[in-house]
Design brief:
This protein is mostly beta strands and 119 residues long. The chain has no helices and eleven strands. Helix content is 0%, strand content 50%. The strands form two sheets. Strands 2, 4, 5, 6, 9, 10 and 11 form a seven-stranded mixed sheet that branches. Strands 1-3-8-7 form a four-stranded antiparallel sheet, with no helix packed on it.
Length: 119
């Protein structure tokens, strides 16, 4: 069964850091591009970051550039999103997704993990 499971969300103060994990099962991430998206209440889903299948090119939404980093550990079959200098506007449910053809068409999605940035 193909599955992506996110973890690592929680409550953090402004300026703090969190690392989200996305564990894959039922398939290997080696040849998949990976992406992170988020959705805040009342807002549309927003692109956060992506990494191509070879791990050589990463892309970030303007609002997170310089603060967030996407990585993949193929040995652990897990993707990560390191989030630093968090702001209240980063509060959202974060989703990871896998793209088998590296064409921004994501076939597999996780269930999401809540990130709340508040003092």
């Amino acid at each position: 069964q193909v599955q992506l499971v996110e973890s690592g969300g929680g409550l953090v103060q402004p300026g703090g850091s969190l690392r989200l994990s996305c564990a894959a099962s039922g398939f290997t991430l080696d040849y998949y591009a990976m992406g992170w998206f988020r959705q805040a209440p009342g807002k549309e889903r927003e692109f956060v970051a992506s990494l191509n299948w070879s791990g050589t090119s990463s892309y970030y939404g303007d609002s997170v550039k310089g603060r967030f980093t996407i990585t993949v550990n193929n040995a652990l079959n897990t993707a990560y999103l390191q989030m630093n200098q968090l702001k209240p506007e980063d509060t959202a449910v974060y989703y990871c997704a896998a793209d088998p053809n590296d064409d921004d068409d994501y076939d597999y999605w996780g269930q999401g993990t809540q990130v709340t940035v508040s003092s």
